[in-house]
Design goal:
This protein has 347 residues and is α+β, with helices and mostly antiparallel strands. The protein has helices at 8-19, 22-37, 40-44, 55-60, 130-143, 147-153, 166-195, 201-204, 212-225, 297-310, 320-330, 335-346, and strands at residues 47-49, 65-82, 85-95, 98-104, 115-127, 157-160, 229-230, 234-236, 240-245, 248-253, 257-269, 272-284, 288-295, 315-316. A hairpin with a 2-residue loop joins strand 3 and strand 4.
Length: 347
């Protein structure tokens, strides 16, 4: 327990949010690594591929997702199937002096048009694998060519429109940039609370009782000069209950407290019970709710006894009778107040 409580609440608010910087920074680094390792930039902004650039050259340059214009497409007579559905139609065309295979979606080619004069389309360049080799074998049989001969005439890479999943790409980047923006905003908010502790929820919740900055200053002055009761992370001064735990910070004027009670939590691993912790709940005027988790029974009992002695109007212990009394004093909150109280508890 520190001997000097000067600006102790502000220091703990800063420490609380500094600890919360690690996870979002780590997540942003992960997003950066994903951006560098995978062709996310090409997926988001497919490169415009000139008609003079072959698919093999584009593949070698790691330009996998491209947008290009194709001319004089002829239907090969073969389709690509997946899960019993036709996912694409194979076409062929001459590109940069070499015959290339193009796989188009049923919508683009209108379920297999015999020929297409000109088409601008976005897709992925893929290296030919088993299905591609099967297609070449069938084409060789149709043309009465050898596999070696048709392989020499056709590019080893082909263009696939169905493999550029437009809907999935949109959802992926909505998730990617949505979580990135949320994380950046969270970092900014944490940095703001570190720089100006009075803006943190623990202080701004006090706006229902007065000016947060003045209340914080008074609470810190009382804690620094003469704390009347102190545990590891809970304190009582002349006018305030103060919590500075790893799970959150709180300041509550003692005269505004309506109800306090505790409950126990049994911590176990499989069948082994290894500890019991106690949580104290505080209900104050203006629908302010404070939770003080993971404390010892002796600490919470001491705090509750002192609060009850300091304010004889405080209801002690959980019971339906006490709940109804508090409800009668506070009244039923409006829906927006319920949401605000819920968010405050989560924060």
């Amino acid at each position: 327990m520190p001997e000097n409580y000067d600006h102790y609440i502000s220091k703990n608010i800063r420490a609380f949010y500094k600890k919360r910087l690690f996870s979002p920074i780590l997540y942003l680094l992960l997003l950066l690594i994903l951006w560098l390792l995978f062709p996310l930039h090409d997926m988001l902004l497919p490169k415009q591929l000139s008609e003079n650039t072959s698919f093999e050259a584009s593949f070698s340059a790691r330009d996998r997702y491209v947008r290009t214009t194709l001319h004089n497409l002829k239907f090969s007579g073969y389709t690509s199937e997946a899960y019993g559905q036709t996912r694409g139609y194979y076409y062929y065309t001459t590109r940069n002096g070499q015959c290339s295979i193009i796989l188009l979606t049923p919508h683009t080619c209108e379920e297999g048009l015999p020929s297409i004069d000109k088409l601008t389309v976005t897709g992925q360049i893929l290296k030919g694998k088993e299905s591609y080799q099967t297609l070449l074998t069938k084409l060789a049989e149709d043309l009465d060519w050898t596999e070696k001969g048709i392989t020499a005439q056709l590019s080893s890479c082909y263009f696939s429109e169905p493999d550029y999943h437009k809907v999935m790409t949109i959802l992926l980047f909505m998730l990617y940039f949505g979580t990135m923006i949320y994380t950046l905003l969270y970092l900014i908010v944490c940095a703001l609370f570190i720089r100006f502790p009075v803006l943190a929820p623990a202080c701004q919740n006090l706006i229902v009782f007065g000016h947060p900055k003045e209340i914080l200053a008074e609470a810190e002055e009382e804690l620094a000069t003469l704390p009347q009761l102190a545990t590891e992370d809970m304190f009582i001064t002349e006018h305030y209950f103060i919590m500075t735990s790893p799970y959150g910070n709180a300041i509550v004027p003692i005269q505004e407290i309506l109800w306090i009670y505790k409950h126990s939590t049994l911590h176990k691993f499989l069948w082994y019970h290894f500890s019991i912790s106690y949580t104290m709940h505080i209900t104050a005027n203006k629908h302010l709710y404070i939770t003080c988790p993971k404390n010892t029974k002796s600490d919470i009992d001491g705090i509750m006894d002192y609060l009850a002695e300091a304010n004889h109007n405080i209801l002690v212990g959980f019971s339906e009778e006490n709940r109804l009394k508090v409800q009668a004093v506070q009244g039923k909150p409006f829906h927006i107040e319920k949401l605000y109280a819920f968010l405050r508890r989560r924060v």
